[in-house]
Amino acid sequence: MNITGKHIVITGAASGLGLELLKQLQPENRISAIARASTGLETLRRTFPGVQIHEADLADLASVEAAADQLARGGRKIDVLINNAAEQYTPHFLDEDFRYETIRREIDINFTSVCSLIYLLLPSLLQSGPSLIVNINSGLGLVPKTSSAVYCATKGALNIFSQALAHQLEDTNIRVKQVFLPLVDTAMTRGRGKAKLPPEKAAAAIIRGMQSSRPNIDIGKTRLLRLIQRLSPRLAQTIMKEA
């Protein structure tokens, strides 16, 4: 799919990888950004006056529905939906600082809102012309690590959901792609890991993959992880256990 002159919706677009995707896609496309008020929306408005901004908390279904209603108002067409927003909590269930309320929030942002937005925006995506749904996943959607158990589960669920959704939509104008990322250098990963992928490089790789025919876009170290998992699932689990 040629990513030029399209209406592209990006979740989590006010910071990190989402912001970098916006920067690289905005010059040749019309962008609608979905983000929380606490993630720099006012700066986004000043910096990119041509971007349509929708404030929404993706952990709140009513907020998701309101944003989708605004996006689809008047029968507007959407060419690309990029489900990028995600939240990750690292404490183990046995840790004193584990917070019970984060379970629901992590699931709702990382998985439930993706399913909901896709369903609510399907009429706009089904309009004439090729359309694309891009679900930003992680190597943790292939093999989990020890920490962030709920996050890993949401990414595993997103993997299976995306495959099934692709089957459901194969006779329509919509294609479904997944992006499997290594550790990207964003606020969410601050203080964790080494040799992290810069967000501008991750965004550029995602955009190249969006224009390819591949359903899965494996970036950086996730290509090796998928190969190891195929050859030796036990070795992949051992490697990722302490990642």
Automatic annotation (TrEMBL):
InterPro entries reported for this sequence: NAD(P)-bd_dom_sf, Sc_DH/Rdtase_CS, SDR_fam
Source organism, top-level taxon: Bacteria
Q: Does the keyword Transport apply?
A: no
Keyword terms of this UniProt record: Oxidoreductase
Give Gene Ontology CC terms: membrane
Molecular function GO labels: oxidoreductase activity
Checking Pfam families in the record gives:
adh_short
Q: Does the keyword Oxidoreductase apply?
A: yes
> Which SUPFAM superfamilies does the UniProt entry name for this protein?
NAD(P)-binding Rossmann-fold domains
Q: State the family named in the UniProt similarity comment for this chain.
A: Belongs to the short-chain dehydrogenases/reductases (SDR) family.
Question: What PANTHER family does the record tag this protein with?
Answer: DEHYDROGENASE/REDUCTASE SDR FAMILY MEMBER 7B, DEHYDROGENASE_REDUCTASE SDR FAMILY MEMBER 7B
Name recorded for this polypeptide: Uncharacterized oxidoreductase
Q: What is the lineage of its organism?
A: Bacteria, Pseudomonadati, Pseudomonadota, Alphaproteobacteria, Hyphomicrobiales
